[in-house]
User: Fold this.
Amino acid sequence: MSRPRLAQLASGSATVLLTVLLVLLLSGTTSTVWIALTCVAALALGVAVAYALRPQNPRNPQTPQAPRTPHVPPAARPFSGAPAGRPTASSYHR
Assistant:
């Protein structure tokens, strides 16, 4: 998981602070339980906002990507007759 960006931290923190202030001021709550629940809900909302601002695709869409070659399992490869790891005559051509 990548580190959060500055925009994610700023928007998430601002969401938490503004949500807590607005909900507590508009509702007039004085109960400790409701204040705690409001803070937890605002924190969840701030995390959701920060998560929504994560980078979607780090690749540059203007740069074309090379096509991937399909993986061929060893059993499907043709057998050359030489043990693996030893040079063959065709590897010495200049």
Observations:
- The chain has a mean pLDDT of 77.
- The chain is about 45% helix and 0% strand.
- The CA atoms of residues 2 and 27 lie 38 Å apart.
